[in-house]
Amino acid sequence: MQLYxxxxxxxxxxxxGKKEIFEPINEGAIGMYVCGPTVYSNVHLGNCRTFMSFDMxxxxxxxxxxxxxxxxxxxDAGHLENDAEDGEDKIAKKARLELIExxxxxxxxxxxxxxxxxxxxxxxxxxEPTATGHIIEQIEIIKDILKKGYAYEINGSxxxxxxxxxxxxxxxxxxxxxxEDMIANTRELAAQDxxxxxxxxxxxxxxxxxxxMRWPSPWGDGFPGWHLECxxxxxxxxxxxxxxxxxxxxxxxxxxxxxxxxxxxxxxVEPVKYWLHANMLTMNGKKMAKSTGNNILPDEIFSGxxxxxxxxxxxxxxRFFMMQAHYTSILDLSNDALLASEKGYxxxxxxxxxxxxxxxxxxxxxxxxxxxxxxxxxxxxxFNTPTLIAHLxxxxxxxxxxxxxxxxxxxSDKALLIETLNAFIFDVLGLENKNDANxxxxxxxGVVTMLIQLRKEARDNKDFATSDKIRDQLAALGIQLxxxxxxxxxxxx
RNA sequence: GGCAUUGUGGCCGAGUGGCUAGGCAGAGCUCUGCAAAAGCUUGUACAGCGGUUCGAAUCCGCUCGAUGCCUCCA
Length: 493
Hints:
The structure is a single chain. This protein has three domains: 3-278, 3-Layer(aba) Sandwich (Rossmann fold); 282-428, Isoleucyl-tRNA Synthetase, Domain 1 (Orthogonal Bundle); 437-492, no CATH class. The model has no long low-confidence stretch (mean pLDDT 89). Helix 2 crosses helix 3 (102-119) and helix 10 (315-323) packs across helix 11. The strands form five sheets. The chain has a four-stranded parallel beta sheet with strand order 4-3-9-10, sandwiched between helices. It has a four-stranded antiparallel beta sheet with strand order 5-6-7-8. Strands 12-11-13 form a three-stranded mixed beta sheet. By secondary structure, the protein is an alpha/beta fold. It is built from 16 helices and 15 strands. The protein binds one RNA strand through helix 1, helix 6, helix 8, strand 12 and helix 11.
């Protein structure tokens, strides 16, 4: 039997503003769409947090036994710098600045994106479609929306008619806005805008002669509006109505609102059952954003080459740090917070590494079955990874007590404990059990083991001058010896 | 200005109307030749002011603050 039949999952639906029991449209199968990156520069850590949240959600669905089709797009065209007449494609702008082909920009940053996600141990999505690969689909949708009277063509561009749509639909239902308020709050009349109303948005933009990214269409050469690609690709791969649409909080308005409008105008049905929004990662209390320069690149964290942090942190420690906050909460990045997470991560892994050697007896002081359900309860409550991690540390406490001989565990409970910990730590949270990458070298390990043996001999002979010399000089090299009951181990910093 | 979210102990960060979050740091202890490492124990909290309630950090109102969106953004 699949796990999902016995675990009642609740998710926070941004559309209703409530936690709802999760029931997929088709039993046992889930369609999930997440707005991916615009590949015009290196993916920064804030971007990663959103994708990591959905990677965790994807992993938990799979763990529960669902068949999941996870679509995460790559935006490689059609992303306007602004909505003004001279709106320029982000990719094209970057290409112009760097004097390369637009698709060269796309290729470079798509590769970077994949490299970074791999370091963070992401699972690849089921489908990763690109906007440029779906121009035809987008044009078809525009034709359909025009035919249904919710869009108008002007000077080779096509705009979605928001006031018209709002007459029979509810534009603003996702972000809690009312069209009347938005019109009332329009600051100034946009200068000579060809749009009928400031709330209207582009479905298709005419390409000026100097514009290099362009495709032929019934309205002349041009390029698609940003919101359209997600509607085209989600509809194509997941259908007119699907289970989950995710993305960053900042996409809620206007991007996701426009997606709803396009899909409803076109298909006449509510496109998404559950809207999930991941919250922002901040740094120094401010949102990370490419446009403001307040951001840090993942590689700068892994290498330690940055002006914000005191040392390098591994991808899995950063992942652990992010998993310690709920995905709907704002998380602030700081050196202290990362250091604390690193310590906690190491403590967790030490416990995991000692699991196999736990001695078993005929009775258990640790109710593993009840503890396991508490872990599921945490995840079932809108993917509450911080609470899950708190429960993991409860298990750590028991493991240490058993190790010290203060508690006992049976063979079967031990097996269940190992299975459950592995499932949550590695399958669901996606953490990796890596000591230090530097310590992997066999030669180094051999040399240090030899020195440990020499030190032990010195200590046995009460030659503490020699033993301390070995210890202190290794420490000076960043190799720390750790004396334990079962002998001495070491770690490299 | 409008809409939304939010304000928890030294730091990070969960949370339910009454019952321990958890991690890090701090303190004490155990272990140790001395340390380190590791383990155990442990304190300080719910922005402010009112209200509802037998009882609120948790519900309501107001004040103050923070953040996000309203233009591209994960």
